[in-house]
Write a structure and sequence with these properties.
single chain, about 140 residues, mainly alpha, 7 helices, about 75% helix, globular
Length: about 140
Amino acid sequence: MKKNGLYAILAIACFFGYLWLGYSVWSEKSAAVPGLNACFIKQVTGIPCPSCGTTRSVRLVVQGEWKAAVMMNPFGIVVALLMAVIPLWLVFDVVTGKQTLFVYYKKAEDVIRLKWVAIVLVFLVILNWTWNIYKHL
């Protein structure tokens, strides 16, 4: 992937992430769409996916309730941190004309391609998925 493509994808993902988070907070307060469930997997199968509860977890992080966020879904901590860091990093690279985020991304991609790292990450996703099912999320 080229730098501009990565930066565009990350900017769009952050934009829609903030939009979804804002809608989530707004709909919780106003009960705008009762019963809305964004998880297609859960709607079809009745079983939560590994990322079920991530939006609620991010909301809890924003509210400063870190322990509750981890209990809801640990992925929410990662997503919240990425949503905070990535836009600032993108702006830094654009303003300075550097490509530090792209360089870091390429290094991270190389690490994730290591077999043992990929196995650990897949194991963590499966563990989280099992936990979501156990919690009846």
